[in-house]
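User: Working on a comparison across species. This one is DoxX family protein from Streptomyces coffeae. Can you predict its structure so I can line it up against the others?
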Amino acid sequence: MRTIWLSGPEWLAVLRIGLGLWWLESWRHKDKKSWFRSGSGIAWAKGVADEHRWTFVRRGFDTVVTPRPMAMAYVVVYAELALGLGLILGLLTPIALIGGLLLNLMYFLLMIHDWAEQGQNSMMMLISLVGLAGMSWQTWSLDEAWGLFL
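Assistant: Here's the predicted structure for DoxX family protein from Streptomyces coffeae:
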């Protein structure tokens, strides 16, 4: 494969690291005090879910998230941190890519009415799929250094 400047596996690593930085930014910009003390992030998502046109989204949210808002606030915030660090460092990369793909899919379904969110989630899902298919953990990663997922 011919590419400009970097090799194909190196470009995949750049894509993986960029996705990790995107997840890290999602974690960084959250007001954690508000998320953890008042549950504002989950309360906002509950408002979106309550008005969702698809009943399975409303029911799923009410079944999984509504009974445990504080736990879910921690899950969301620290999942974004773990995804970011895992992808940047290339640590357990396939697991991080699949986890990010699933989290983006949940965000995508919840925010089906918001085109700006749809664009972000679509791009992040696409990058995750390319990272998985291209085995982006083969270059510049702890997975590569430790011989994981060969």
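For your comparison, note: The longest helix spans residues 8-28.

User: Helpful, thanks.
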